[in-house]
């Protein structure tokens, strides 16, 4: 079979490397030459995944922001409960002509610990409207990704638009990753997130979204550049069996936009944590979140990636300098506290792929 594959690939590719032959629209000819490398970087060189590159050129996808990174087709989901009139008469007036911006952080718990699902239901830009005192139906898929949605409960939002639901002990879930969907009864808008039930000593790799992925303006810009090979680094650790965790100190009102950006740039599925509302201490939020996972759920952080701002966060959870990888500008005083990736992710990936550069996750179910 190997001989057949070799002879086939010669016929397919010929003498040209397809991933080096860039299509250049006529419009780009008007740009100054020194701007072109940046444009091509943003368009093509996020990853060495040639197949993804070819598919993007051949298939012009109409980009639809996913509800979550483990996007579930809404067509497979039947809410089960018909729409009902709003409990509060003012609700229909308040949410008229505004879009839903519901969100929820993914939940990571060790088996046997309390399984608590939390979400917030808001409408309009900058959270102008809170959905208070209305019904929300909670569904979970036990046999992902092709299983059936199971109805868990109907809960009421509180005055801040939040729903908190503890899964009863008799319905508690064993090891696994479970999609969760909370649906507003009044208009059938929904929020999707994941519940991960993990064994003790589950190993994970942590990425700070702003610190480690973006090579230009912030994630909420129109479409910031991705650092070259950032996607490949995440995939490398995922393929070794590590749980991927994306953290950010950004307010959760930006969640859907940031998740759509991660998905658009082919980042692998990971569990995501945003700050609850506008945080005055975003780094403190990251540290508290990670400490909770380590102390209460037995998670082991194998390595972590970020910018120089994240060094204090990663040091506070007990990581050694060789476990902390930093990209971007780093002052001299920080060089002893972390591993600085001065040559970027591509060189780092080469080191990881060398013998002894990285090892598979141990003990992950």
TrEMBL record:
GO terms for cellular component: cytoplasm; endomembrane system. One of its GO terms (molecular function) is phosphatidylinositol binding. It comes from the Eukaryota. Residues 1-60 form the DDHD domain. It is found in: Endomembrane system. It holds the Pfam family PITM1-3. Keywords: Calcium, Phosphoprotein. It is a peripheral membrane protein. Belongs to the PtdIns transfer protein family. PI transfer class IIA subfamily. PANTHER family: PHOSPHATIDYLINOSITOL TRANSFER PROTEIN (PTHR10658), PROTEIN RETINAL DEGENERATION B (PTHR10658:SF81). This is DDHD domain-containing protein. The lineage of its organism: Eukaryota, Metazoa, Ecdysozoa, Arthropoda, Hexapoda.
